[in-house]
Design a protein that fits this description.
It contains three helices and no strands. By secondary structure, it is mainly alpha-helical. It has a domain at 17-65.
């Protein structure tokens, strides 16, 4: 067993982390991907962890790069002879 669920752990002794606007967007996006309207405790904890590691900016860069429109590349012609042809 890895560790106890977050809601069964005692509260941390240090001050809570205020989520930045980017971290809040990250938590909301994670909740939307999971089919929830609002982020839950686990989404917020993950966003805070990413924020403390500086990962929210990296994640944002990664998503903007992957959703960027690709340039048109010429397609290869399909072979109409022989092996791969369906009947």
């Amino acid at each position: 067993m890895a560790s106890r669920a977050p809601w069964k752990r005692p509260n941390p002794k240090k001050r809570p982390t205020k989520l930045t606007a980017a971290a809040k967007r990250s938590a909301r996006a994670r909740a939307r991907r999971a089919g929830r309207t609002y982020p839950n405790l686990v989404d917020n904890m993950n966003a805070a962890k990413q924020q403390n590691r500086g990962g929210a900016a990296k994640a944002r860069k990664r998503t903007t790069k992957s959703t960027r429109k690709r340039t048109a590349t010429p397609r290869r012609k399909r072979s109409t002879t022989g092996a791969g042809k369906r009947s």
